[in-house]
Amino acid sequence: MRNSLILLGILTVLIGTRAAVPTRAQQPVANTPTFTRDVAPILFKQCVSCHRPGEIAPMSLMTYELARPWAKSILKVISNGTMPPWHADAPVGTFHNERILTDAERTTLTAWAAGGAPKGDDRDLPSAPTFAEGWVLGTPDAVLEMQEDYQVPATGTVEYEYFYIPTNFSESKWVKSIEVRPGNRALVHHVLVHYRGKPEAARVPLARANAKDMQTPESRHAGQRPQRTDLKDMPQRLIATYAPGTNPQAAPDGTAFRLEAGGMLELQMHYTAIGKAGSDRTKVGITFAKEPPSRELRAQQFFNGTMRLPPGAADVAVTTDLEFVNNATVWGIFPHTHLRGKKWDYKLVLPGGETRAILSVPRYDFNWQTYYMFAQPLDVPKGAKIVSTAWYDNSPANKANPDPSKEVLWGDQTWEEMQYSGVLLSPN
To answer: Among 28, 93, 219, 267, which one is least packed by beta carbons within 10 Å?
Structure first.
């Protein structure tokens, strides 16, 4: 799915209801919430990180004049659960990055839209939040950018491309956040950021993926910029992920990523042709930790590359697991499928056999891929497993299905499929 289609889908929902917005001539209902006093604080807190100029949302909600034409649309998308985009089924407070309106906030927005969407007294308007231009997490300490523009054709399949960016770090760095910023979101499907550096010391392994499932079909084609094979003395480590709707990678309190001196970033870039040629030059913003953390944060992945979805099958479950070979803390989980994925479930199976539910995503949405960050991280003992199960709809009833008549296997492109999970973890 192209990023441009994400915005088109949102616009379709919003534009379809925009005509129903009350006119300025209509009188608001008595005691109706006002924008300046009641609505703006909610939008500033919950919405404008995306709904502002230059960000992924198709309209800005930073001012009354910009927000009011969308009042009925706001009412519709909060009523049907489309916005804010959050798809986990868990009690409020389970995840610290939840995008959830409180009941009071939902009631206020509903009453404002239904009551004529009045502005209110300008003196009640709080100060609008400020943002670093071009960055969600603020101005980075270091910005590392692709060294050339990549030209994406108007049509055809674009295989994975690899770009290498020297860091020129003269010493090891503790990193608090990593933000991937595509130069052209419409063309960038995803970015995996790996670090290539010479380890200062061996890292004690924490977990191992199921080797039987981690087999994938060999790539049929190589991109114009294939992965380098001359870096065997600089092991590859995943440190950040960008996909539609994914938040920047921020290390939880007391943790940070460690980047060895003299390394380089390896960007695995997946571009998608959208019918119009364009170019991209993605950049990565890095913010350093103010002091060394108590624990190193690591990223790991596990997946089932042997998956098969029969033609027309509406409910296919695909499972794999991650086994812990040492005690660890799990900070977050990132589920990823393509267009046929519909829900996810994760369970922690303890060494004695006890099973605990840790994450349920009953309404998985490819357009909003989220790293679910636990408010209380999971203490996982050696010998435990995280078992992941994803369900897929390869039937004609799935409107996003590229071709329900085909058997679907693991593959890089969005018309193929994946059963992939990212995990953020650290040693205990």
So the answer is: 93
Topology annotation, domain 139-198+233-294:
Jelly Rolls (2.60.120)
Would you say 309 and 202 are in contact if contact means Cβ atoms under 8 Å apart?
A: no
pTM across the whole model: 0.85
User: Under a CB-based contact definition with an 8 Å cutoff, are residues 107 and 52 in contact?
Assistant: no
Ramachandran angles phi, psi of 38, nearest 5°? -115, -40
Length of the chain: 428
Question: Where do you find CATH 2.60.120.230 in the chain?
Answer: 139-198+233-294, 205-213+297-428
Domain covering 205-213+297-428, topology: Jelly Rolls (2.60.120)
Q: Nearest 5°: phi and psi at 418? A: -140, 155
Element (H, E) at 387: strand 385-392
The residues, any chain, with a CB within 8 Å of residue 197's CB and separated by 6 or more, are: 234, 235, 237, 259, 260, 261, 262, 263, 264
pLDDT for 293-329, tens place per residue?
999 999 999 999 999 999 999 999 999 999 999 999 9
- 126-139 residue pLDDT tens: 999 888 777 888 89
Burial of 88 (0-12, 13-18, 19+ CB in 10 A): buried
| Cα dihedral sign, 283-284-285-286 | negative
Secondary structure class of 382 (helix, strand, coil) = coil
